[in-house]
# Entry
Amino acid sequence: MDTAAIALIVALIVTMACGLEITWSLGLACIVAVLLDPNLTFVVISQRIFANSNSFSMLAIPAFILAGDIMSKGGLSKRLVAFADSLVGWISGGISLVSIVACTFFAAISGSSVATTAAIGGLMYPEMSKRGYPEDYSAAVQAIGGTLGIVIPPSIVLVIYGNITGTPVGDLLMAGVIPGVICCIFLCIYAYYKAKKYKFPKAEKFSFKRFLHSFKGAIWALVMPVIILGGIYAGIFTPTESAVIAVVYGTLVCLFIYREVTFKSIWEIIQSTAVGTANLMILVVTAQMFGWLISYYKIPQFVTRFMLSYVSGKYMFWGIIILLLIVCGMFLEVGATNLILAPILAPIAAAFGIDPVHFGLVLVFLLAMGQATPPFGTCLFVSCGISKRSVGAVSRQIVPFILVEIMCGVLFAMVPVLSTLLPNLISG
# Structure
């Protein structure tokens, strides 16, 4: 392997180990490689940065962020909670099931795990505590529910994965529907088992009248993912255009139907989104530059040859990847991990005959799980901040939920039809 290629990888590892922000780590690693390679210049690098960022599909990122921010501040979360409560609140341990189901619904709006935990957790944690649930367990439920935010479409991480690997974004978004719902069901099953075992309280009996009333209040929120995904696969608009549709739809609903935001607050949301998007795009562009250098030095081909020599078959490959992603998810931020590993692992998966949509979904799902795992899970931190509980105490309660998600990850890896069924069915 070329000296500059080795320096690229070593510089990234060293700078990250020193605690440098991932954006700076990626940038400095690229600079080290350029300085050591006489065939590369900073002019080439600047041209590549422009080429990488000059992508129409990348416009979906700020638009989905803006749509999620508008709808999360526009009264969507409390209406979704009320709907989820009417749906599953009457079951044993119902309020914990309400949290998970509400997170699932909200994930289909926000596209963000952290936003999901913050919005739903802020409402549900006090309610669970008030009804007598252990505080550490209540906080753990909010953290694990938030992990569904980047699996269920629209997902910003899946959009980024599609852009850096060349996988169709529309297929990736659709691939997250069935796995997201399955994971929600399994998490609910464990929450139900836990409630039965420890005799947690349950709410009033099911009321069809209350269900209809809450459904009426939440229907505008529930329709949004249908419009986005339906529009994409009906050929009405592209995945990028769907993000803009989401912004327009969310603004109209929150302004004129729910009336919980004003033109002034929307302008403040736009400003906040602009700052957040700028930070994210700097990271994305830097990571794309890193990905281009990885391809330039043929590192994926090198790793592929190495793994093909020592890894005997697709299932052994999956075992290594699942373990790798679980460990990375524990210590690295999901977006950064996605940006670093996707350009390396996607070609290797293709060499083992794995469908790129299937692999992308499993990769993002396992990285999403890392947002709830100690010691650096962002959803875990948000939940601890809401509950004022220690990370250690909440972590002990979240371990069984993590094991459930690992089981789901293995299931999705071994049964590709769960992620490819809808894309293949709709695409024909």
The CA atoms of residues 130 and 285 lie 46 Å apart.
